[in-house]
Please model this.
Amino acid sequence: MKRASKSRHGDRRVALVLQGGGALGAYQAGVYQALHEHDLTPDWVVGTSIGAINAALIAGNAPSARLPRLEEFWHSVARDDLLDMERVPDTLRRSNTWLASLDAGMRGVPGFFSPRLFNPFAAGMAVAPESASFYDTQELSETLARLVDFPHLGSTDAMRLTVSAMRVTSGELVRFDSARGSLGVEHIMASGALPPGFPPVRVDGELYWDGGLYSNTPLDIVLDDEPRTDTLCFMVDLWRAEGAEPTTLEEVQTRQKDVMFASRSNQHIEDYRRTHDLRRAVQALHARLPAKHKDDPELQKIAALGCDTTMHIVRLPYPGKDWHMASKDINFSRGSIQWRWDRGYRDAGRAIEQAGWLAPVPSHCGVVVHELAREIDHD
Model:
């Protein structure tokens, strides 16, 4: 792929927003690879659940180590296929991924999670809050400690990292931000603690679950950030809000999960657009005031609400159908992981070549959304 120059982002801040989605997160890794190779390395990465893990692997390492750490993580959690996925018909590929998902559900994923044997929680008995789950995620804690250089996050040249988690006792969404404090393994673990599979994680005395339970697409974190600045935001969607009418139990379960975790970004973007238009109007009105009124303290307070920044949002939707399997997010088949990574790399490359954010923008426009033209879907 053709390497681009720094002018590809037009001196804007570059942000990368990553959803939760389990094994589908390999697509995000491919997206990052394309950004990295085209000199569009993010200044800020925001993630939830598997997106938080990918975000930590990216932001929590020196530039030269980011891709190797992503590759090491995804290679370690991928399960070897029984068949060569590129040399068998579609029916056998589907059977292979079904077996891979079944294996992950029964035996766990080394380096990520393992089933709790003789688990009283599964029998309906009370256990310690930190053990209230079907799986143990201690292995993920060890993996993150090995692959993420957390002290690097506190260095002056580090990429900003923000992850979200939901406080169990209040249902409040909490943001952990390296720009406002130190982050550790526990913050990333908390963001990916999806119940009842994974246990809650205690941070500073409070228990947290997966931030995706509240909002699986943390785009609003970027939209609401202050001080406001021109931003080029790549948003990776792993779930589809739209879909066909389901006719089987498997399709119903898949549609349910897609809807639960799909992006609610359209509403966030529209709300932000309206607010941003008002901010631009405030700035324009203040600029037209006679000079003698511009020093009025009350008018200066109002003027401070105005801004003229532009937010470009590039949406990259995961294109795989995964045979409408509800278990697609625990399909760690090596062939599936590689396909997702390759497709993320390819889709991000297409978006970068289009570079729609470099086109002129009308003065009144504060938010521009760039949709990637969809190619023929694949399983």
In short: The chain has a mean pLDDT of 91. The longest helix spans residues 265-287. The CA atoms of residues 227 and 241 lie 32 Å apart.
